[in-house]
Amino acid sequence: MLGFAIRRILMLVPVFLAVSVIIFLMIHLLPGDPIDNLLKIGAGPEQRAALTAKYGLDRPLYEQYALWLGNVLQGDFGTAIVQRRPVASLIGQALPYSLALGGLALVMSTVLGVTVGVIAASAKGSWLDQGLMGGVLFGSMLPNFWIGLLLILIFSVSLGWTPVSGARGWESLILPVVTIGLGGTALVARVTRVAMIDAQSRDFVMLLHAKGVHPVVIQLRHVLRHALIPVVTILALRIGWILGGAVTVEVVFARPGLGSLLIKSLNQHDYPVVQASLLILAMAVLLGTLLGDLLQAAMDPRIRDGLK
Amino acid sequence: MLLEVKDLSLSIGILRLLDRVSFAVDRGQVLGLVGESGSGKSLTALALTGLVRRIGGVVTGGVILFDGQDLAGLPEPALRRLRGKRIAFITQNPMSALDALKTIGDQVDQVARLHLGLSRRAARARTVEILTRLRIPDAAQVARAYPHQLSGGMKQRVVIAMALAADAELIIADEPTTALDVTVQAQIVMILADLVRQRQIGLILITHDMGVVAQICDLVCVLYAGRVAESGPVETLFAAPRHPYSAALIGCIPREGMAPGALKGIPGGVPSAAAYGDACCRFAERCPRADALCRRTRPPERIEGGMTVACHHPLPLLSAAPEVAR
Prior knowledge:
Distance between the termini of chain A: 14 Å
Radius of gyration of chain B: 20 Å
Oligomer: heterodimer
Strand content of chain A: under 5%
CATH architecture of the domain at 88-257 in chain A: Orthogonal Bundle
CATH architecture of the largest domain in chain B: 3-Layer(aba) Sandwich
Low-confidence stretches of chain A: none
């Protein structure tokens, strides 16, 4: 297991480097110039040149890249050009909000999605299964921001139970978490159900029945373990998405977060912030995949032995 | 009598898959349930402990007397308490019969913990003891291994260990050797035969291998298309099969000194369940002795010389038919 983990972690290094190059180049290929946002109206070419030199934007690209990567590896993401603050502090401010929102939404979609999937698979073909899967399908068709607005309308405006927007106190987390969590729940429920039904039909299940094991124990201790392996893969892929992809929900609820920071910085061509945010999100995806692989290996001895 | 099945009929949906099947097996006996694929052997095995309900099977008639109690009408929870405890099951394919994510030990322990109420530690000690008795080397280490780390023959021994873990009185083995190498097949068959003798277990051995039947069975029940063709003591059947189908099955066993090309198959195939006729002999289409009577009347069961045979024109009693070599 330890050897497996070390191999997987080492494999991340080249991927991380490739991702950093791509992010760096993509930003510099974008049209537009951050200096435009900083210059006062009527400023002359001398002022432009001075500012460009100040931020190192006049140097060759590979030099800029090497400088940037070297600093990043030491935890220094540079200074935001437009927002004029250390990038690390901007991200440090936004990240906890994203982590709380994304983490709770992930927990919600895992717990609820797996539960719904197990119930539906156990009652396969019944009205309960069809009802649950119909609800899940309906839920996954609705766009995030619309669910958010609907929830605000019901729980904040009509019932007055939760704050309409903002990020103060745990109450303000409820609706955004539910909004994002519902989409994940639908996905996890569907994957769990299919994986459960697949595992239920395998030979070892009949032998468990022949051993006199209670059907509930068979479902939860044996079949579910097999079904969770594909579910873990899906969840791992969602980690990155949930951190950065919550932009619409952050806008609807007027919450700070990594997604909002990224969009704002993109609009302002604030390179250092965009680069750092993208890098953090890419890291989240990579770490999510790593976590998924490690969890799978922890769950399946065949993967640990390199057979699958 | 340990197990007595009388006139067992079973349907899945509109298909009537078993039609008045009867047989019996006592402690210390091995009953061979034989027939080609599709004859209803595995279904019969699943029907005995109600497992057939999991694939939609419904017992429509007959009784399954186990130690005097009729299992056919027993509710699921009562059957579940019997399964694995008094009646154990050995499945066809050991490769896929074990849970790939659990250790061998956990899976064998499960039976004793569930049915005998043993603690984790006591169950493991018992598991290691049983595995050792089944001649598995380093049993304690094997108990910590996962199924994919064992060979097919080892896995089948593990499945047999599960059958022994709660001291079952009846073991139903559904083609326990078909998925294994020939060399390993013989070992598994000998293990089962020894268990029956030592522990006075009743064993129902489902197989299409007449060689195995001749080796270890005391009784044999030949199934064809969901009906019993012939049943009785194995020596009598091999000495003088009365049903043309039994004779044909025996004719399919390769023997020493056989002339090249002398090995015969049985022409045609088992009819599909949807095409089962009711008022006829279902073997008539493939039978050299069939006539018009066979095609319009179900053959009655005759009991003669210790054998039960369902045939209008059985082969002669106590003298081998010309096509069956002695």
